[in-house]
Structure formats: C-alpha cells, structure tokens
C-alpha cells in the first residue's frame, strides 16, 4: 500500500513538472517559430519566383514550337500589331493564343480567304485594270511581272499572318526615275484592304498544353500573369536590311510595292553592298553600342527574320530598348542578344 501511495505521489509530481515545462517551453517554441519564419520568408519568396520563372520558360517553349508550326503551315510567323511604349507605363498584349491556340471557324476562314485574295489581286497584272496594278509591264520586260507576282504572294501572306492593315508605300521618286520602264506611277500609301474584319490564320497547335491561368482572351501570359512579349513579325522573303545598287541580287519591299515588315539587321554595314546602314537616332542611338537599340526595329545579325519571345519577369516591367535597366530581371526564351558586342 505504501508503494502505491509513493507511486501516485511521483506521478502527481511529474504532472506538475510537465505542466510547468510546457508553459515555459511554449513561449520559447513560439519565439523560435517566429524567428525561423522571418528567416525563411525570403527563401520562400525566392522559391516561388523560381517556380514562376520555370513555368514561364515551359509555356514559352511550347509557344515557340507552336509559332514555328504556324509558319510551316502558312509560310509566315504570326504578325503582331503596333507595340505599346512600355517605358511610359503603357500595357501590352499579344494575339498568340488566337493564332496558335485556337482553331479558326469556317466563317472566319471564309472571310480570311476572301480578304487575302482581295489583297493579292491588287498586284495581279492579268486580272486587274492597268490603273490598279502596282507596276506596268513594258515590251520585253518580265521584271514588272516578277515584282507583281512576288507582291501578290507577300500580300496574301501578310493577311494570313494577321497583318490586315498592310499598305503599299510610296515609291522613291529617284528610284522611279532610274527604272522608268517599270515604275509608271507612284503607288499611294494606302492599305490593301479598305475595311478588313479578319484576324489572320488560327490553328490549335498547343492542343490544350497551356493552362487556363496562362491565357487571357487572345493573349498568352507568363508566370506572373502578364502577356508574353512577342517581337519579330515578318513576311517571309523580304530583305530586312536596306540596300542599293545590285538589284539583281536583292529584291526590296519597295521594289514590289509592299510596306516594309520585319526588323533591320544590327550589322554596321549592309552585307550585300558594303555600305553603312542608315539608322534611326532614337531607335538606335549609338551604332557602336548595338545593345542600345529598340528590339522592335533592330535585330542582331542573322536574326532579322526571326522572332523573339520573352517575359517582363517578376517586377512586370520591360522596355523595348535592349540595355534598359528595367530589363534586368526579364525572362527570355533564348539569349537573343548573344551576338551583340
């Protein structure tokens, strides 16, 4: 009996000790947890940032493949409308989900085809009155026929790529004087289509591979909920760098009455003529430092006819000038500037 009493007393004493221990340690544990949480919070933020960056890279890789499939199907990359001035705080957008993530309806396809035909017919010498032709063929001159044929095909591609506002430029009067047998008139700078309603070709090359959180309307978003930045719209076959002289070696957009599309090379001189390139002082303020250029209008050598796909990054800030400070945390798909000095 005495043993049972002693055991009971020991249990009671242990309970008292346990309650006292829990009260003291509880305060200490709470303090430790708070300290650990404050230390680990930046690490959690960094981990989330890397996760968003990884998700953005995955989405861009899928979009990259889809854009290339788009070109293989119609002959041109998707065209992007005028870009916003990001430095001023304006928002931006893209139509990539429309072009590579949706299937065009029968009605939209009929409209697209009819508008592409209408744009191409502006340059068809065999089916349009002389006043509507881009160039007039003369005796023994197959050059004008070639230019009109090229322009007709490029016009069709422009509409299918989504550039429904593509226009004919004014032919350089001096160039017109050089080739009087070909250029019978100055082409007005007017859109090929007066009231377009189509948005270009669309095919679901993504086949459901883009999660809903990475889509908004016609746009595809990065890991931080902002539209991906897409630049480098071109119509295949155009020469991006300006040149003069050997017209048999290069055909320029103005040669066949088409608005220039795509970007100019960042090479200091024209590869075909060895002449210095004419640059825009605002878009390319320092030719010696090619990183100070507007990527909407200038591309590294060899990438004039390629596109770029990138994200503004976690701070959701970007600028089209390549070396802008706000671009430091941008997330590109590839190192597009790798060939720049």
The helix content, as a percent range, equals: 25-40%
Mean of pLDDT: 76
Major pleated sheet? 3 strands, antiparallel
The tally of domains stands at 2
| Secondary-structure content class | mainly alpha
Discrete helix count:
5
Order of adjacent strands in the largest pleated sheet? 3-6-7
| SSE string | HHHHHEEEEEEE
Quantity of strands, as a count? 7
First CA to last CA: what distance? 95 Å
Strand percentage lies at under 5%
What is the 3D form? globular
Q: Any low-confidence stretches, pLDDT <50, length ≥5?
A: 128-132, 242-249
Write down the Rg.
31 Å
Could you explain how this protein is built, in words?
This protein is mainly α and 341 residues long. The protein has five helices and seven strands; from the N terminus they run αααααβββββββ. The N and C termini lie far apart (95 Å). Residues 128-132 and 242-249 have low confidence and may be disordered.
Provide a concise account of the structure shown.
This protein has 341 residues and is mainly alpha-helical.
Set down the secondary structure blueprint.
Elements: H1 2-74, H2 96-101, H3 106-121, H4 143-161, H5 173-178, E1 215-216, E2 219-220, E3 229-231, E4 264-265, E5 298-299, E6 308-311, E7 331-332
Parallel strand pairs: 4-5
Antiparallel strand pairs: 1-2, 3-6, 6-7
Helix pairs in contact: 3-4
């Amino acid at each position: 009996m005495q043993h049972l009493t002693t055991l009971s007393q020991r249990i009671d004493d242990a309970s008292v000790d346990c309650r006292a221990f829990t009260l003291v340690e509880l305060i200490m544990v709470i303090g430790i947890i708070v300290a650990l949480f404050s230390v680990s919070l930046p690490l959690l933020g960094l981990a989330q940032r890397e996760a968003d960056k990884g998700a953005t890279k995955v989405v861009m890789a899928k979009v990259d493949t889809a854009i290339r499939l788009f070109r293989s199907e119609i002959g041109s990359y998707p065209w992007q409308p005028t870009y916003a001035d990001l430095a001023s705080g304006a928002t931006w957008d893209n139509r990539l989900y429309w072009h590579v993530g949706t299937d065009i309806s029968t009605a939209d396809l009929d409209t697209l085809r009819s508008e592409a035909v209408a744009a191409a017919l502006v340059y068809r010498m065999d089916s349009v009155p002389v006043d509507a032709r881009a160039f007039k063929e003369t005796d023994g001159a197959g050059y004008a026929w070639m230019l009109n044929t090229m322009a007709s095909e490029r016009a069709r591609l422009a509409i299918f790529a989504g550039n429904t506002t593509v226009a004919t430029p004014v032919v350089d009067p001096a160039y017109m004087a050089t080739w009087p047998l070909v250029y019978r008139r100055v082409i007005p700078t007017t859109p090929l289509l007066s009231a377009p309603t189509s948005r270009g070709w669309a095919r679901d090359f993504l086949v459901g591979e883009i999660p809903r959180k990475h889509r908004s309307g016609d746009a595809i978003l990065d890991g931080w909920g902002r539209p991906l930045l897409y630049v480098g719209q071109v119509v295949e076959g155009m020469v991006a760098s300006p040149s003069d002289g050997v017209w048999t070696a290069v055909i320029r957009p103005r040669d066949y009455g088409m608005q220039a599309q795509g970007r100019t090379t960042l090479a200091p001189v024209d590869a075909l003529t060895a002449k210095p390139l004419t640059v825009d002082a605002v878009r390319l303020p320092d030719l010696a430092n090619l990183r100070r250029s507007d990527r909407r209008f200038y591309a590294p050598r060899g990438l004039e006819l390629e596109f770029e796909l990138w994200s503004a990054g976690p701070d959701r800030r970007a600028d089209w000038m390549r070396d802008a400070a706000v671009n430091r945390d941008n997330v590109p798909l590839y190192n597009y500037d790798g060939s720049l000095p």
